[in-house]
Design goal:
heterodimer, A: 453 residues, alpha+beta, six-stranded antiparallel beta sheet, 19 strands, B: 480 residues, seven-stranded mixed beta sheet, six-stranded mixed beta sheet, 23 strands, 40% strand, globular
C-alpha cells in the first residue's frame, strides 16, 4: 500500500513555517483517505463512487498561551501556511480559562494494533459482489421486492498526529462495509423495512451471507404486524438497540460534558451508584472486533480500555488532556482535536458483572411469557434529551406472548435513562459483537410503550 | 500518489476564465470516451464557527477547503468521484476513475450519444456577491454579539445552569460545468446563530434551543435581535422546566407555525423527491393528479424567498430554482427532481439538485418548503379541539424507508375544551405520510418560515421549513 501522508515532511514544513511566523508551539492532526463504493438497484449498477480526501486540523499557541485552530483540506505547503495564519488569528480569541495543552502521553508507547491491511478489490468486483447479495436477498421472500438502501464500500486511510515537541503518531488502516436494507410489502398491508450491516478490514472479508440472512430474517419477521396497546411493559432490548441507547446517553461518561454542566453525572458522581449492581460498562477501543480501532486519539494519547461502570458504580470518565488535568487524572485516549477539545466513546461493552451475576436468570426470550422485544431504535437524534435523561423513540420490535412473537406496528418507547439503568432485571446471553460495541440482551422492567391505533 | 503534490493556488483564487480551457478539455475528453454526460462541480469554502458559553468564548473554529466532484452518466448509471486535488492531473485522474467505473476508457474514443458542443455563456450569479465574505462580521464582532446573546440569557432567564450561543458563517463558491452546455457560477453565504439553555431546579430540567439563519445577507449577525431571541428561549425553558410528561395516545394536534413545518418536510416532502421515486420508497410515485392530502393543504417548495435559509440563485447542477407547487388543494401536482432523477424517472428538473459539498453527488432535495396559509385564525384551530396537544415548538425528526415519520416536540401544551392548558414534555409524534396528510384539516393565516438543516443522501443542506398553524385531526403521540 502506498503512503498518502508524509509525516516527516509535514513536520519539517510546519516547523519551518511556524518559526518564520514566530509560533513556538503547534500541533496537527491530519488524515487522508481513498474510498470507493457501489450501490445497485434490482441487479443494475446505480451509483458508483470514489473519493480522495485530505483534511487537517492545526492548533497554535500564541505568545499569551492562548490556542487558535484552523481546519483545511489543503495539505500543501501553501495550505499549511494559510492554516497557520488562520489559527494564529483565531488564537486571539482563545479561552484563557480552559486552554488545552499537549497530552502528557503524546509520546508514550502506543498499543500494538493487529489490524491487517487489506488489498482493494476494485469497484468492478465490489459491484459484482453487491449484485449477488442483492439478488440473494430479493429471493428470500416474495414480499421483498427491493433493497432500496444498499452499499458496499472499501477504504484505505492514514492519520497522523505531530507536534512541535517532536511527537509523531501515524496509523494506516483499511476498512470495508456492507449494508442491505430491504423493503417488503404484502397486499393490503403497510410496507415494512429492516436491514443489516457488516464491517471488515477488507471487502474480501465481509460476511455477505450473514448480512443477507440477517436483513432477510429481520424484514420478514416484521411482515405480520399488529398494533400494540399503550401501556407499561417488560422490555427486552436487543444488543444493537441497547448499545444505541447507551451511545445516545454517553454524555453520562463524558468529562467534557460534566465540566460543561450538560451531563447527568457530576464530579461527585464518581464512585456512586449509577446502575443495578450486576452491570458493567467499559469503553474498549482496542477490542479485536473493533474494525475501526485506532492506536491514539486526536491529541496523540494512546487508546486504552477503560472501565466506566463496575458493579453498578460509576468508576471513570472519558477524558481529553484538558479535562483530565482538571480532574487530576491521566488522559484516557478519547479526545478529538480543536480549540475546545471534544471527548467521545470509542467502542462500548455492556457486560454482566460476572457469569453468575447477571440478574434474573429466569428471563429468556424463548421462555418468558409477555414482553416487548425491541430490535432497533430510530430517530435517536430527535428523540433523546441527553441533558435531561429522557427519551421517546420509535422502534422496531415484537410483542412476545406465550412464546409467540408478533411484529409491532409503529410504536414508541419512552423513559429516563437513569431509571432504565436501575430497572434492568437481567442480562441475557453472551454479549453479541456489533460494529459499535458488544452487549447482551438487556431486560428492563416497566417501560412505557405507545402504540398506534 | 502523494496528496502533497496538489498545488494550492486554486484555494485562494476565484473560479474565473482561467478554468474554462481545462474544464472544456476534461468534459470533451469524457464525452469522446463515450460518456453520455459529464458534469464537473468545483468548490471552495471559507467557514467559521464560534461558540460562547456562559460569559466566555470557548471555541473559534475557522476552516477552509476546496475540491471537485466529477459525475459521469452512461444511460441511467452514473459514476461519481470527488477529490481535494484540483491540479490538472488530479482532475484528469478523477475523470478517468469515473469513466472507468462505467467501463469507459479515457484513452479510447467511443463517441458520446449526447455529445458536447461547448459551453453556453457563463451564467454568473456570483459576480454581485464578490465582496460578501469581506462584508461579514469579523471575529471580534462575531464573538461580541454572541456574548451579548449569553448576557441576555442571564438577564431574562431563571434557573439557568448552562447558557450557550453559537454562530456559523458558511461561504461557498461553486462553478458548475456540464457537457449539456451548462456553465454557471455562484457564491453562497449562509449564516446562522443560535441560543440554547439548560435550566435546572432540583430534579427538574429543561433544555431549549433556537436557531436563526439566513442566506445571502452579510450583515445577518449585526441585525440579529439577541434580546428577542433570548426572551423566546428563556420563556420556553421556563415553561417546560416543571412540565409533566405527556400522556401517550392518539389525539388531535395543533402545530404552531414556523418550525412546525418540519411535519410536512418529514411526513411528505422527502417522499416527493425523485430520489425516493428511484428507490421505490414513496407511496406517491404514481399518484400525480390524485388527492393525497386534505383539500385544505397546498404545499410548495421553492428556492426563491428572499434571504430565506434554503434560497438559492442556482442549484448545485447550475439550474435556477423553480417554484414547485407540490400539492394544490390536496392534489399531488409534481415531484422535486434533479438531473439523475430526470434521467431515471422522467420527472423534469426543478432546480432541486443539491449537495452538501463536492464530496457528494447532487440529489433531489428540498429548499424552502412550506404549507401555504389558509383562512382560519390560530385561535380557531385551538378552539376546535376538545382534548389534544398544542405543539408550540418542534425538535428534529426523520422519515424512514416506508414513509414512517417521527419528530419530537420541544415545547407542548395540552388543549382542554378549546383552550391551552398546562405544559407537557417528552412527546414524540409518529405516523405515516399517507395517513396523516388527509388529516391536516385546518390551516391558519399566519404562515412563517424557519431555518434548519436537512440530512439525506447528498449530505446536510440548508433548508427552510414553514407553515401556518395547522390542525391534524389525529396522530400518535408517544410519551409516558
Amino acid at each position: 500500500m502506498s503512503t498518502l501522508l508524509n509525516g516527516d515532511r509535514l513536520a519539517d514544513t510546519l516547523g519551518r513555517l511556524a518559526a518564520g511566523m514566530g509560533i513556538q508551539r503547534w500541533d496537527l492532526g491530519a488524515g487522508c483517505s481513498e474510498d470507493s463504493s457501489v450501490q445497485v438497484d434490482r441487479g443494475e449498477a446505480k451509483q458508483l463512487k470514489a473519493s480522495q480526501r485530505s483534511s487537517m486540523t492545526l492548533r497554535v499557541w500564541n505568545s499569551d498561551g492562548l490556542v487558535g485552530v484552523t481546519s483545511s483540506s489543503d495539505l500543501s505547503d501553501d495550505g499549511l501556511e494559510r492554516a497557520l495564519q488562520g489559527a494564529r488569528e483565531a488564537s486571539a480569541f482563545g479561552n484563557p480559562d480552559d486552554t488545552p495543552a499537549f497530552s502528557p502521553l503524546c509520546r508514550a508507547p502506543l498499543p500494538e494494533l493487529e489490524r491487517p491491511l487489506a488489498d482493494h478489490l476494485g469497484i468492478r468486483r465490489l459491484l459484482d459482489s453487491l449484485k449477488a447479495s442483492e439478488a440473494d436477498l430479493l429471493q428470500r421472500h416474495p414480499a421483498i421486492e427491493t433493497v432500496p438502501y444498499n452499499g458496499l464500500g472499501e477504504s484505505r486511510s492514514e492519520r497522523l498526529y505531530i507536534n512541535s515537541d517532536g511527537a509523531v503518531r501515524e496509523q494506516r488502516s483499511t476498512t470495508a462495509s456492507l449494508y442491505l436494507y430491504a423493503r417488503a410489502e404484502e397486499a393490503g398491508r403497510k410496507p415494512r423495512s429492516a436491514g443489516a450491516v457488516r464491517l471488515a478490514h477488507g471487502a474480501g472479508d465481509l460476511d455477505h451471507a450473514g448480512c443477507v440472512a440477517e436483513a432477510a430474517e429481520r424484514t420478514i419477521s416484521h411482515l405480520d404486524y399488529a398494533a400494540i396497546d399503550t401501556g407499561r411493559y417488560l422490555v427486552c432490548f436487543g444488543p444493537e438497540a441497547f448499545l444505541d441507547l447507551m451511545g445516545a446517553f454517553s454524555s453520562l461518561f463524558n468529562a467534557r460534558a460534566v465540566l460543561d454542566g450538560v451531563s447527568l453525572t457530576r464530579r461527585e458522581s464518581l464512585g456512586q451508584p449509577l446502575a443495578v449492581p450486576f452491570l458493567t460498562i467499559r469503553d474498549n477501543g482496542l477490542h479485536p472486533a473493533h474494525v475501526g480501532a485506532s492506536a491514539f486519539d486526536g491529541e496523540g494519547t494512546p487508546t486504552r480500555a477503560l472501565s466506566l461502570v463496575e458493579d453498578g458504580l460509576l468508576t471513570n470518565l472519558l477524558h481529553s488532556e484538558a479535562t483530565a488535568r482538571q480532574f487530576g487524572v491521566a488522559p484516557t485516549g478519547h479526545a478529538g482535536l480543536g480549540a475546545k477539545v471534544s471527548v467521545g466513546a470509542d467502542w462500548l461493552e455492556v457486560l454482566p458483572a460476572s457469569p453468575e451475576r447477571r440478574g434474573d436468570t429466569g428471563l429468556s426470550r424463548g421462555m418468558s411469557d409477555t414482553f416487548v422485544w425491541i430490535d432497533s431504535l430510530s430517530a435517536l437524534h430527535a428523540g433523546v434529551k441527553a441533558s435531561q435523561g429522557s427519551f421517546s423513540l420509535p422502534f422496531d420490535g415484537w410483542l412476545v406472548r406465550g412464546g409467540e412473537r408478533r411484529s409491532i406496528e409503529a410504536a414508541t418507547v419512552a423513559g429516563d435513562i437513569r431509571s432504565v439503568l436501575n430497572a434492568i432485571v437481567a442480562l441475557e446471553g453472551e454479549p453479541e459483537i456489533l460494529p459499535g460495541g458488544r452487549c447482551p440482551h438487556v431486560w428492563v422492567e416497566g417501560l412505557s410503550i405507545t402504540g398506534e391505533a | 500518489m502523494t496528496l502533497l503534490s496538489a498545488p494550492a493556488r486554486h484555494l485562494s483564487e476565484p473560479f474565473g476564465d482561467a478554468w474554462l480551457p481545462s474544464l472544456e478539455d476534461l468534459i470533451g475528453s469524457g464525452c469522446r470516451a463515450g460518456a453520455d454526460l459529464v458534469e464537473i462541480f468545483l468548490e471552495r469554502t471559507d467557514r467559521v464557527g464560534v461558540l460562547a458559553e456562559q460569559d466566555r468564548v470557548t471555541s473559534v473554529s475557522p476552516g477552509i477547503g476546496a475540491g471537485a466532484g466529477i459525475r459521469v452518466f452512461l444511460g441511467q448509471r452514473d459514476g461519481f468521484v470527488s477529490t481535494n486535488d484540483l491540479s490538472p492531473d488530479g482532475l484528469r485522474r478523477a475523470l478517468a476513475t469515473a469513466l472507468d467505473m462505467l467501463g469507459l476508457d479515457l484513452s479510447l474514443s467511443r463517441p458520446s450519444r449526447e455529445g458536447f458542443a461547448g459551453f453556453r455563456q457563463l451564467v454568473d450569479h456570483g459576480s454581485r456577491k464578490a465582496d460578501w465574505l469581506e462584508r461579514c462580521p469579523d471575529l471580534a464582532t462575531s464573538t461580541g454579539r454572541l456574548l451579548e446573546g449569553t448576557h441576555c440569557l442571564e438577564r431574562v432567564g431563571q434557573h439557568l445552569q448552562v447558557r450557550r450561543g453559537s454562530y456559523a458563517r458558511d461561504w461557498q463558491e461553486v462553478l458548475v460545468a456540464c457537457s449539456d452546455g451548462t456553465l454557471a457560477r455562484d457564491i453562497r453565504l449562509h449564516q446562522s446563530c443560535g441560543l440554547s439553555v439548560l435550566a435546572a431546579d432540583g430534579e427538574h430540567r429543561s433544555s431549549v434551543g433556537r436557531r436563526y439563519g439566513s442566506s445571502d445577507r452579510p450583515d445577518d449577525l449585526i441585525r440579529w435581535d439577541a434580546e428577542a431571541s433570548a426572551a423566546e428561549v428563556c420563556e420556553s425553558a421556563g415553561a417546560m422546566l416543571y412540565a409533566d410528561y405527556v400522556e401517550a395516545g392518539q389525539m388531535p394536534v395543533v402545530l404552531a407555525n414556523r418550525f412546525g413545518g418540519v411535519i410536512f418536510h418529514e411526513a411528505c416532502g422527502h417522499l416527493l423527491e425523485t430520489t425516493q421515486v428511484e428507490r421505490g420508497t414513496t407511496p406517491f410515485a404514481d399518484r400525480v393528479g390524485e388527492p393525497i392530502a386534505h383539500p385544505a393543504v397546498t404545499a410548495i417548495d421553492e428556492g426563491l424567498t428572499g434571504e430565506a435559509f434554503g434560497s438559492l440563485s442556482m442549484d448545485d447542477e447550475g439550474m435556477e430554482p423553480q417554484r414547485s407547487v407540490l400539492i394544490e388543494n390536496g392534489v399531488l401536482k409534481r415531484f422535486l427532481s434533479d438531473r439523475a432523477g430526470e434521467r431515471r424517472t422522467g420527472h423534469p428538473r426543478t432546480g432541486s439538485g443539491r449537495r452538501q459539498s463536492h464530496n457528494f453527488a447532487a440529489a433531489s432535495r428540498m429548499r424552502n418548503t412550506y404549507i401555504d396559509a389558509g383562512p382560519h385564525s390560530p385561535g380557531d384551530l385551538i378552539r376546535s379541539v376538545d382534548n389534544g396537544l398544542y405543539c408550540k415548538s418542534m425538535g428534529g425528526g426523520s422519515v424512514g424507508p416506508t414513509g414512517q415519520f417521527n419528530f419530537s416536540v420541544e415545547e407542548g401544551y395540552l388543549i382542554e375544551n378549546g383552550r391551552l392548558g398546562k405544559p407537557v414534555k417528552g412527546a414524540t409524534l409518529i405516523g405515516d405520510a399517507k395517513e396523516v396528510m388527509p388529516r391536516i384539516s385546518m390551516c391558519a393565516n399566519d404562515l412563517e418560515l424557519a431555518a434548519g438543516f436537512c440530512g439525506s443522501v447528498s449530505g446536510s443542506v440548508f433548508v427552510t421549513v414553514g407553515q401556518p398553524h395547522i390542525k391534524v385531526d389525529s396522530i400518535t403521540v408517544g410519551g409516558r
